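User: Sequence recovery, please. Input:
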């Protein structure tokens, strides 16, 4: 009997693809390129934990954005549980944005 192994790289890519469909409503750049996603953890049970931040603690989407992330990631086949954790340590800054996001916003 062969043990099935998770292709976490493939799963990670799928998660990133979904994250890139979620946009901050105030900035026309997806949350992944904005640098709001700090980490994505996937374990052997297909549980996903996403550590993310918001542009500010009083961000108008503080209530809805984490829920949107959780719901969209849950739509990926094969995942059991998805947990989104918000942190402000370290606080978000423009330095966390990808070159692509900075270019899009005219910061380069």
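Assistant: Recovered sequence (108 residues):
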């Amino acid at each position: 009997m062969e043990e099935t192994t998770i292709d976490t790289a493939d799963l990670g890519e799928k998660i990133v693809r979904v994250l890139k469909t979620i946009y901050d409503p105030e900035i026309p750049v997806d949350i992944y390129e904005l640098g709001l996603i700090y980490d994505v953890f996937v374990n052997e049970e297909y549980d996903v934990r996403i550590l993310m931040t918001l542009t500010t603690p009083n961000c108008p989407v503080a209530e809805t954005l984490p829920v949107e992330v959780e719901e969209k990631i849950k739509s990926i086949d094969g995942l059991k549980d998805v947990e989104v954790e918000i942190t402000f340590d370290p606080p978000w800054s423009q330095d966390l944005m990808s070159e692509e996001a900075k270019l899009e916003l005219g910061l380069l």
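Residues 47 and 80 are 5 Å apart (CA to CA).
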